Amino acid sequence: MPESLLLRGGRVVDPSQRMDVVTDVLIVGDRIEAIGPRLADETKNREGLETMDCAGLVVSPGFVDVHCHLREPGREEVETIATGARAAVAGGFTAVCAMPNTDPVTDNQAAVGFIIRQAQIANAARVYPIGAISLGQRGEALAEFGEMIAAGAVALSDDGKPVASAHMMRTALEYARTFGVPVADHCEEPTLAAGGAMNEGIMSAKLGLRGIPAEAEEIMAIRDILLARRTGGHVHLCHMSTRGSVELIRWGKDRGINVTAEVCPHHISLTEEAVANYNTNAKMNPPLRTADDVAALQEAVKDGTIDLIATDHAPHHYDEKEREFADAPNGIIGLETALAVNITWLVKPGIIDVPLLVERMSCAPARVFNLPGGTLRKGAMADVTVFDPGAEWKVDPSSFRSKGRNTPYAGRTLHGRVHATLVGGRVAFRGGA
Amino acid sequence: MTLSLGKDLLGLEALSGEQIKLILDTAEPFKEISLRAIKKVPTLRGATIVNLFFEASTRTRVSFEFAEKRLSADAVNVAASGSSVAKGETLVDTARNLEAMKIDMVVIRHGASGAAQFLAERIDSNVINAGDGTHEHPTQGLLDLLTLRDHFGRIEGLKVCIVGDVLHSRVARSNIWGLQKMGAEVAVCGPRSLLPNAIDDFGVTVFRRVEEAIEWADALNILRLQLERMTAGYIPSLREYNRVFGVSRERLERAPRDVLILHPGPMNRGVEIDSDVADGPFSVILDQVTNGVAVRMAVLYMLSGGNPQLAVRSAAGSANA
């Protein structure tokens, strides 16, 4: 008899089956065996049954992050696949997609296989590699999509670098159709964004920092949408940050174009004001924008223009961030704060409810990237997140599983905390008191 | 309400009009020291000051050095080249090493916006921003204000137009904040490609043509046009810049009143300013340089804890103000 686990008395929220009810979930082996109100009685004599009391907690399909940077191979002092995968489960993520801007770049089947093997050894969250669009992410020659996908890659992206050539983007969208995977683009018009360190506006003008205008993102967003229309390919727009981008995505979706989009927790919670005092832990690309952009992105999460929330978890070494603003690298970590940021800025103010949060953090990312998970249906893989949406906690970067400490939320009190994370029926993370 | 400047002088944006006025008032008695045969008072005797210049500078560095010496401080100049910075030392390590030598103040010039604040947050010594990237150059702003006040007897109500590359100018930012806080009307004029996109949010008037600016202004503060702006594609040519935005005698002669001419230097004669304007009767460019020493003495004095009310006595030669 395989091991079994009863999640007892939780609020089971599974938008994939339109479920939001206080009930029990029985897991046998690595699968969801049953969901129902009398499972505790029915299983009470079962040998080897473990029970987790979930009263007052939300039980949902495991969160899926389609956008993170795990830095291995190449920058293992900053993060490894193992530390990243452990940070993921601590944040309630049962699966994450690793961007290919490693060193060397993940642009071939052997590199994809390396990530999968390291993830198996780590035995924490599932890690799905994303392959590079172009060899070396140089934007010159297409990488071998077919071989990378056969080796386990789930999508293609040159993230970290924009695909500057419209022709390259067009070809990638066409060629990826054979394999049915999304092409994820970091939308940034490179000549407009060159040298930029923050949002272009009154703040950048006051601080004397070179700005990145909203149009640098929007020009590439509409280019990609138009190319998706031309090619029929699936374009996924990474980390959208402006009202204009939201409007362009809406335009594309209204016309049935195969475009999906993500937003990061920091872009729905913080504005460029966080950069005042030259805080390098609020420096990322795309940059934090204005309150108006934040409002538009929050609304887009609600109405589905933005399909999903992804972290863009980007660890950097302390020394790299402890320097002059313009010279500090872009990016913040996000795996261990995403749930709480989303609850604090989206759920608590009433913009979205818990089921929609689960949809945007679990069901939609699994669906958009064609990944297993995102559901608690009977027979599905038992990837489950148990969280307390009301728990308050103060962000202390020294407690993170990630090697990264670069977060703009340090010292802030947030709402919502992971209680337990199950990957394939196994408890991969259990929160403290 | 406290008028103390606090630990550091990082910019004029954070200061109040009263604080700025106090610095200017404190500078007045210090002006006279530079006119003496023995240009030295013992005010900062025993204080150690490091002039940490990561960018080449002659005027500002020498001005600070004179201010320090005339106040009897022990000053050391550190230039970025030839120091451990050139060997890859980070700014934070440089700062900590200097502080470990038990210094009292650091005057920093750095190419990165925010560098002065970065340093100030990490060391206990007083930090004076001598220009950080394209952010602020507060002592330049102060000496410009002092020069305007000397000439007009007031700053409130003056119409001052900053002409040129506002986008890349720390002098422009410090001037805008300082002038606004002191009640002046501020305008800018320059090619739109060299003005911040958000310039309208600064509360300044924007003139498209330099002729309009000259017609309006009591004083022009003409910014240096960095020659590399042309190669970076912001303007087509220096020649055209001079034709469209250059301040010439001919343009000034059409003004309804005498227009005072300021320039933070170093000048590109024949580009943003013509020689007969720079050397003309309404130019106070060298007065600015003279005032720079007095303003910097005032700032050093105030940050070291000196009481502005006693600055007169300090300037007269009493050691312990």
Search tags:
heterodimer, A: 433 residues, alpha/beta, 8-stranded parallel beta sheet, 18 strands, B: 321 residues, 5-stranded parallel beta sheet
Task: Please specify the SSE layout and strand pairing.
The complex is a heterodimer of chains A (433) and B (321).
Chain A: E1 4-14, E2 19-28, E3 31-36, H1 39-42, E4 49-53, E5 58-61, E6 63-68, H2 81-90, E7 93-98, H3 109-122, E8 126-131, H4 145-150, E9 155-157, H5 166-176, E10 183-185, H6 190-193, E11 198-199, H7 202-207, E12 211-212, H8 214-231, E13 235-237, H9 243-254, E14 259-263, H10 291-303, E15 308-309, H11 318-321, H12 338-347, H13 354-368, E16 384-394, E17 413-423, E18 426-430
Parallel strand pairs in A: 1-4, 1-5, 6-7, 7-8, 8-9, 9-10, 10-13, 11-12, 13-14, 14-15
Antiparallel strand pairs in A: 1-2, 2-3, 5-16, 16-17, 17-18
Chain B: H1 17-31, E1 48-53, H2 59-70, E2 74-79, H3 91-100, E3 105-110, H4 115-122, E4 126-132, H5 138-152, E5 159-163, H6 170-181, E6 185-189, E7 205-207, H7 210-216, E8 219-222, H8 228-231, H9 238-245, H10 249-253, E9 260-262, H11 275-278, H12 285-303, H13 311-316
Helix pairs in contact in B: 1-5, 1-12, 2-12, 3-4, 5-6, 5-12
Describe it:
The complex is a heterodimer of chains A (433) and B (321). Chain A is globular. Chain A is built from 13 helices and 18 strands. In chain A, helix 8 packs parallel to helix 9 (243-254). Chain A is an alpha/beta fold. In chain A, strands 1, 2, 3, 4, 5, 16, 17 and 18 form an eight-stranded mixed beta sheet that branches. Chain A has an eight-stranded parallel beta sheet with strand order 6-7-8-9-10-13-14-15. A two-stranded parallel ribbon of chain A has the order 11-12. In chain A, strand 13 (235-237), helix 9 (243-254) and strand 14 form a beta-alpha-beta unit. Helices cover 29% and strands 23% of the residues of chain A. Chain A has helices at 39-42, 81-90, 109-122, 145-150, 166-176, 190-193, 202-207, 214-231, 243-254, 291-303, 318-321, 338-347, 354-368; strands at 4-14, 19-28, 31-36, 49-53, 58-61, 63-68, 93-98, 126-131, 155-157, 183-185, 198-199, 211-212, 235-237, 259-263, 308-309, 384-394, 413-423, 426-430. With 321 residues, chain B is α/β, with parallel strands linked by helices. In chain B, 39% of the residues lie in helices and 14% in strands. Chain B contains 13 helices and nine strands. Chain B has helices at 17-31, 59-70, 91-100, 115-122, 138-152, 170-181, 210-216, 228-231, 238-245, 249-253, 275-278, 285-303, 311-316, and strands at residues 48-53, 74-79, 105-110, 126-132, 159-163, 185-189, 205-207, 219-222, 260-262. A five-stranded parallel beta sheet of chain B has the order 7-6-5-8-9. The A-B interface holds A 200-202, 204-209, 211, 213, 277-278, 319, 322-327 and B 13, 90-92, 110, 112-115, 117-118, 132-136, 170, 173, 196-199, 201-202.
